[in-house]
Amino acid sequence: MPDFPAPSGGARRGVLFDVDGTLIDSSYIHTIAWWGAFRQYGHDVSMAAIHQLVGMGGARLVDNLLPQDRDRSEDQDIMASHGALYASHWPSLRALDGAKDLLGQCREAGLAVALASSARERDLQVMRSVLDADAFIDAATSANDAEESKPAPDILEAALEALGIEAADAVYVGDAVWDMKAAAALGIPAIGVTCGGIHAAQLRDAGAVEVYEGPRHLLENLGASAIGRLLALETKS
To answer: PANTHER family this protein is in (predicted)?
Structure first.
């Protein structure tokens, strides 16, 4: 683990982290929950198709996967069903290897840390409990903080505002194509992680400046990463 000196005067730069699939091993749980919700309302959607869109906001995901001539009055019920099915898996949630250590190293090195999640507020609370890393987290967003979901950049903008930093002074870490696109919309360098099940080539094609296997792999290469470069700028200023 690289030893970065913490700068004096407080953090002026920061790292934004997606949570589902990036810090918490939940992407496939969401896939199963969406699959079950669709089946409850008579829609047979493949898990592979669902998984590719996990990380996109629920309304967008439903609209992209179901026929355009469907009964849209059921959309909210489908999303509620997904939420209930996902909540039934809360006891199974676990942090990905190195997640807490990665957050801690970034924070202790002097960077502000935000969870830029579009999860429901209650889901986010559960995931924060699983992470057990609140001592290293300066701010967190939920679905309540954005008008538009990813790939729109609203969640990232809310996280930047919560930290009081500019997009030029941030790096984003996420596991989905939609994370990369949201960061690109604001000109934020995005680090991709494949622990959510999306291939490295897909993340790079969507704008990732680099890709790692997961939090532990990123932590082991932190000095050479976009976060390391941000830290180098921080210690010089």
So the answer is: BLL8046 PROTEIN (PTHR43434:SF16), PHOSPHOGLYCOLATE PHOSPHATASE (PTHR43434)
